[in-house]
User: Which sequence fits this backbone?
């Protein structure tokens, strides 16, 4: 049996994000809305002209870029992008994966 923390048992709602994260559940609808509908605001007009979110796979945000150089830029800004989309509920996004999708 695992020892309880100093605060005793936690309410179920406080444990759900951790449980969902461990199960690899998809992000909350709020996170999805934040990423896909606010992309331009989150990354800026210049970057959003060359990069767009494609999907969220577990804790990974997959971003398509139109040129490898923009992929490098997305990777450089990955920490900032993930911080911008961090939401208090649901499993957090943990990394950014870049794919080159030339038109």
Assistant:
């Amino acid at each position: 049996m695992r020892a309880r923390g100093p605060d005793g048992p936690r309410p179920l709602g406080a444990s759900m994000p951790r449980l969902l994260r461990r199960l690899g559940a998809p992000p909350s609808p709020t996170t999805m809305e934040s990423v896909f509908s606010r992309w331009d605001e989150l990354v800026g007009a210049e970057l959003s002209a060359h990069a767009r979110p494609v999907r969220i796979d577990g804790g990974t945000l997959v971003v398509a870029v139109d040129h490898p150089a923009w992929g490098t830029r997305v990777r450089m800004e990955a920490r900032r992008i993930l911080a911008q989309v961090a939401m208090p509920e649901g499993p957090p996004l943990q990394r950014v994966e870049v794919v080159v999708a030339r038109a």
User: Anything to note?
Assistant: The chain has one domain: 25-100.
